[in-house]
Specification:
single chain, 388 residues, alpha+beta, 2 domains, nine-stranded antiparallel β-sheet, six-stranded mixed β-sheet, 9 helices, 26% helix, 37% strand
Amino acid sequence: MIDVATAYTDLRASADAGAALGEQLRASLRGEVPDAVVLFASSRYDYRPLLEALTEHCGPKALVGCSSAGEFTSRRLGEGAASAVALRSDEMQFSAVAASGLSTGHVAAAKRLVSGFQGRSLGSCRSRAALVLVDALAGHADALVEQLTVLTSGRYQFFGGGAGDDARFQRTHVFCGTEAMSDAVVALEILSNKPLGVGVRHGWRPASAPLRVTEAEGMRLVSLDGEPAVEAFREHAALTGQAFDERDPIPFFLHNVIGIATGEGYRLRVPLALEEDGAIVCAAEVPAGATVCLMGTTGTSAAEAAAQAARAACEQLGEHRPKLAFVFDCVATRLRLGREFGAELDAARSMTDPASYVGFNTYGQIARSRGQFGGFHNCTAVACVLPE
């Protein structure tokens, strides 16, 4: 049995917002103390008073979360706000752990997280999962997920995303207790004898010929097929009749992302900026030597992908009914779709009804589940469903 409560506030003052969230959660749980609370909050908040007020008013045993770039629950969708969910269960165990220094030591950060996981010593536990929230601007998010998979011998499902800062791409934070940290990662371990479901889909298709990454430096895509990376975008714009304003490339980039061929599909990367030498700065690493395509999609494809991700997650529950869905999707998707982004959430809800859902717009999405392409993604819908 699991009790779930969601909350949302757009109050401006940080302490007032934290108090409002805490009061909503505690009231929905009939005054009971939650085992865990997950918070997603706009970068306009001062996080210390927000976290302290939330803790004071509902007293969770574990509190994790991150800054965001769009927040939502089953009842509300907005920007510049905060959403939260409280969990209380006699059948699940929750524990929070954080690690800093991601930019200079992602392997050590992964080891720190895994060392705090309680499920490694529980041989009889059926389902092991962790919500992972990361400062993706620190880099190494993809490698971090790979390390987590290796260090847990593939026995854990991972889901979550990169913290946001309202699409400014300057500084993001993750939360653990009342602390807000940059250059860090936080995880909420979830142990259950019932199955948890994780689904991931993106709905994009190759729209160009394959290209070879001939030079890349972390998030900088320097050259494709031996030419400055921008040349591929110029050629694609000309072939498809799209406008590509190099002084303001974001509108074009949002509709023409990079797909890295993985053998299981395409892992997406969002271009963010064009440099003077023709290099493209992306939202996450693009490995040198990889085969990539420029990708295309439609608004309906995005909604279909969200529905498919939610359906895949629910199917993993077997005979159990869904109680709560975590939904994560890229800030680039929200910027591209505008008001139509609500249709994507509606599509996910149609697959998980009558469960509540909570989530945020991310700077990248994290998913690792059996039978699906895993890792760190952009422009991808990720859903995790907890059973009743």
